[in-house]
Known about the structure:
- The complex is a heterodimer of chains A (117) and B (113).
- With 117 residues, chain A is an all-beta fold.
- Helices cover 0% and strands 51% of the residues of chain A.
- In chain B, a hairpin with a 5-residue loop joins strand 10 and strand 11.
Amino acid sequence: DVKVTQSSRYLVKRTGEKVFLECVQDMDHENMFWYRQDPGLGLRLIYFSYDVKMKEKGDIPEGYSVSREKKERFSLILESASTNQTSMYLCASTPLVRGRNIIREQYFGPGTRLTVT
Amino acid sequence: AQTVTQSQPEMSVQEAETVTLSCTYDTSENNYYLFWYKQPPSRQMILVIRQEAYKQQNATENRFSVNFQKAAKSFSLKISDSQLGDTAMYFCAFMKMYNDMRFGAGTRLTVKP
Lengths: 117, 113
């Protein structure tokens, strides 16, 4: 089974702190994603990465950065946490499959519920 | 950009009965993929069922089936013989490329004993 793990289930930080959220997958997937989940808004893509040291902005990258130094690990960084970044953060991964009409679903981690006070 | 709409924020169903969750989407693409994900309380999000747009046949997975209406851009999920373990948040998702998955706002389903 694919396993995607996230470093913390619950996290409480103060405004202005630098926050690191870690995600690790054990299935050698090329693609990794960070989403935030808010009630009534579903999941929104923050950043994704399709290879080591590669990153692309999603729909809501402001206030966030990412790091992918190793294939299995994708980190989300809040440079200076703010109260509007209180949310559930979900990491996901999916393999790169070459071929027409071949697509794989995304596999999700358990989520990190971040509260910024 | 593609949008996904789930018009039912909350639903409930009695155990052993059937329930249908609605999802509509907006796209100009012809080839794409649709998914239903389940997120149980305090647990990991998992895939329930997937549908490729080029396939006319509706996907089924045990008690879960979809009604895919491509022309109407509708993708509903039917859960038969509902079980207490089906209580969860359900998300409909649309994907054109691996890096462009769009989620609906979710439907919170409660199965009552």
